[in-house]
Design goal:
single chain, alpha+beta, 5 domains, four-stranded antiparallel beta sheet, 18% strand, elongated
């Protein structure tokens, strides 16, 4: 039996032997090795001596990736951000099926011949920083080194063809950039421009902050003390309304007021009229026909109060369908409660029908 060779401390490929372990089922000694990647693995001594095992498995993985990757620009088995930017840039300009082709290839935007190879693109633009993407400085020109940069979404949004550009003191930039620089919100700048103000006044006039004066009042529902604008307090008092600290309290106050108000007669639907009041429905139908044929001309003002709001015909007696009195909504409710009183005021249109 040959003498056992001590392999501790020796290096085989990426593996460094740490210590001897137990034998395997065939009687061969195993050795605990540390790989350059930091992983530990058990390897048979003969495999180390004959160079059959050189790593924990990471070397084979890297070689496989290199064999199946043309551009050699991957990270954790996935294409890098820079490579994806190059692929999408190229496809937008040459592939009609690619989303956004109408804004690039269809407009005549092209990629320079040098950038047809990824390595040349990488040499010119370097690695793409996180949260950045490729951007053309002049949107009407193609992709080449002098016209491209890595830019954030914010920078790209301010470099669009449809942006509103204003020039002041020799500096040209979009409304959003001016708003950020001056501290005046975009809506205010746009409103001032629409009013026709000079650009100097638009960008230099400070915003007036209106400070409303408030006072403390008590909620009429929950009796909680809260702050309210003085103008609104006066308006509420003038209209005879109550104070509410929230929508919930305001709704409760309105419901309480409705319960306290006397109920008023409500209009009866046409369907119920047909079932319960056939005589009333017949009278209505006859009057409608007479109005449609031009035999009766309806009045536009209430015959009692002179109001012109919601004026409609009223039948004091439905057995006499052409005995009519034109009343507004309020007077109509009063006439329903006391029909005998209003019958003398009605006009008989039966002579017009004959």
């Amino acid at each position: 039996m040959p003498k056992l060779i001590n392999l501790i401390g020796k290096r085989f490929g990426r593996l460094t032997v740490i210590k001897r372990a137990e034998k395997d089922k065939w009687g061969s000694y195993k050795w605990l090795c540390l790989c350059d990647c930091g992983e530990k693995t058990m390897v048979i001594g003969s495999s180390l001596k004959k160079n059959r095992t050189k790593s924990c498995g990471c070397l084979l993985k890297e070689k496989t990736q290199q064999r199946f990757t043309k551009h050699n620009h991957t990270k954790n088995g996935k294409n890098s951000r820079t490579y994806n930017s190059w692929v999408n840039m190229t496809r937008r300009c040459v592939d009609p099926n690619k989303e956004g082709y109408e804004y690039y290839g269809a407009r005549g935007i092209k990629v320079c011949e040098r950038w047809s190879k990824f390595q040349n693109f990488l040499d010119d633009m370097r690695e793409c920083p996180p949260e950045y993407s490729i951007d053309r400085i002049n949107n009407d020109k193609g992709y080449y080194k002098e016209n491209c940069r890595w830019a954030t979404r914010k920078e790209q949004a301010r470099n669009k063809n449809n942006n509103h550009i204003e020039t002041y003191n020799g500096k040209s930039q979009c409304i959003a950039a001016w708003a950020e620089e001056t501290g005046i919100c975009e809506e205010t700048i746009i409103a001032r421009l629409n009013r026709g103000l000079p650009l100097k006044n638009v960008l230099t006039t400070p915003i007036k902050i209106l400070k409303s004066q408030s006072a403390f009042v008590e909620c009429s529902k929950c009796h909680q003390i809260f702050a309210k604008d003085i103008k609104r307090i006066k308006q509420t008092k003038k209209m005879g309304k109550q104070h509410a600290c929230s929508r919930k309290c305001a709704s409760a106050i309105v419901n309480d007021q409705r319960r306290c108000e006397p109920s008023t007669p409500t209009a009866i639907s046409v369907r119920k009229d047909k079932e319960k009041f056939p005589e009333k429905n017949l009278a209505r139908s006859l009057v409608r026909r007479a109005i449609k044929s031009g035999k009766i001309i309806p009045l536009e003002e209430c015959e009692f109060c002179g109001s012109d709001l919601s004026v409609d015909g009223h039948h004091p007696d439905h057995s006499r369908p052409f005995l009519l009195l034109y009343l507004c909504k309020n007077c109509h409710h009063q006439a329903d409660s006391d029909p005998d009183k209003w019958e003398n005021l009605a006009t008989d249109y039966s002579g017009c029908i004959i």
